[in-house]
Design brief:
Elements lengths: L4 H6 L5 H7 L4 H9 L4 H22 L3 H22 L4 H11 L7 H19 L6 H73 L4 H25 L6 H15 L2 E3 L9 H19 L3 E6 L3 E6 L10 H12 L2 E7 L5 E7 L3
Parallel strand pairs: 1-2
Antiparallel strand pairs: 2-3, 3-5, 4-5
Helix pairs in contact: 3-4, 3-6, 4-5, 5-6, 6-7, 6-8, 7-8, 8-9, 8-11, 8-12, 10-11, 11-12
């Protein structure tokens, strides 16, 4: 069972603790009951009042609005019945009724509370010519204020618990998206390289060329590296660098028979982001472009990949979409599209106006 901070907060919103706190209002009918103990009608009415109050509290707890208002109406009628018997003290019951109603009728609270307090003061003086019910009025006002404050605290608590749950859900969704994007980028590149090198090894083997064994060995290394990359991506400790991707890309283009113009040095503040750009861009060149040459141009705030292939008029796939998300998260801009008269260009810029 979850015993984290959310469950500690939630137990005061839902559960038996809330009913214990609600039961505090039973002190008012018990006060009236003690003062009218010798009158059987009042005793029966007050016991019925206590039972209906408990039922209304449970109905509110179960979000059964219709039953709650029916029982609140019964409580009002019972207050009216006991009023001629208990007189001023009966207004303690009115404090209970108003405390139930006001938190669920917030717009009417500014009207109901002053009217109920005025009636508590005026009715005993005007009807029975006794002292005004100042004590009962004060009890009514302060009880309603406490109950409203408690109800607002419950609403805020519930909203906080819901907000925490939403944050956790969004974090889980973001982590799933990250893993999905990373796996696509990692496996797309690695499997493309493995496919290209396997085809090259097959052609070399068919010619009896001894380099086929060397290519197969590199396929094995690529497979091992792909497995390590997948494990790193899932665990969240992946390391992608521009220098490493340029080295891998140079070998990938060579195996695919594409002339490569890649920089030998790779300095700058955006090593990881540009590494992902080179990885995805060169993977797409090998898989889709049917190019004969490819160039990578790197500066401090940009990286550009060009090829002389046929390009693609289709919608961007998951790889470019994921890459666009990475670039946007880093505050950069990505442009991808065909060049004239032929070819394709992928350019990512970070920190430029």
């Amino acid at each position: 069972m979850d015993r984290g901070p959310d469950s500690d907060a939630q137990r005061w919103v839902l559960g038996w603790r809330r009913l214990v706190l609600d039961a505090g209002l039973l002190v008012y009918p018990l006060i009236v009951l003690a003062q009218t103990a010798g009158q059987p009608v009042a005793v029966v009415v007050l016991l019925a009042f206590c039972a209906c109050y408990i039922g209304a509290a449970v109905a509110a707890y179960a979000f059964r609005s219709r039953l709650f208002w029916i029982l609140t109406g019964v409580l009002t009628a019972l207050f009216a019945v006991v009023l001629p018997i208990a007189r001023a003290n009966a207004f303690y019951l009115l404090a209970v009724v108003v405390s139930l109603a006001v938190p669920r009728l917030p717009r009417w609270g500014v009207v109901l509370v002053p009217i109920a307090a005025a009636a508590t003061v005026v009715v005993p003086w005007a009807v029975w010519h006794t002292d005004p019910g100042w004590a009962q009025a004060a009890a009514l006002v302060f009880t309603v204020l406490v109950v409203v404050a408690f109800a607002e605290a419950l609403r805020a608590n519930r909203a906080l618990v819901q907000a925490r749950a939403e944050v956790q859900r969004l974090a889980a969704d973001a982590e799933r998206s990250r893993i999905s994007r990373d796996l696509h980028d990692l496996l797309g590149h690695s499997l493309t390289a493995i496919t290209v090198k396997s085809n090259l090894a097959r052609r070399l083997a068919a010619k009896g060329d001894g380099r086929a064994v060397e290519e197969i060995g590199e396929v094995e290394q690529l497979s091992r590296q792909a497995l390590a990359d997948v494990r790193a991506a899932v665990s969240g400790y992946r390391e992608v660098t521009l220098a490493g991707e340029l080295a891998r890309g140079r070998e990938l283009l060579r195996a695919a028979g594409i002339s490569a113009e890649l920089p030998t040095a790779a300095d700058g503040p955006h090593q990881e982001l540009f590494g992902w750009v080179v990885r995805e861009g060169l993977t797409n060149v090998v898989r889709h472009s049917r190019a004969t040459s490819c160039a990578v141009i790197v500066s401090g705030d940009s990286v550009e990949i060009r090829d002389d292939g046929v390009g693609s008029a289709s919608d961007p796939g998951n790889g470019l979409s994921g890459l666009r998300d990475r670039v946007a998260a880093a505050g950069g801009r990505m442009d991808a599209g065909p060049m004239r008269p032929r070819g394709w260009r992928l350019r990512v810029t970070v920190g430029e106006a």
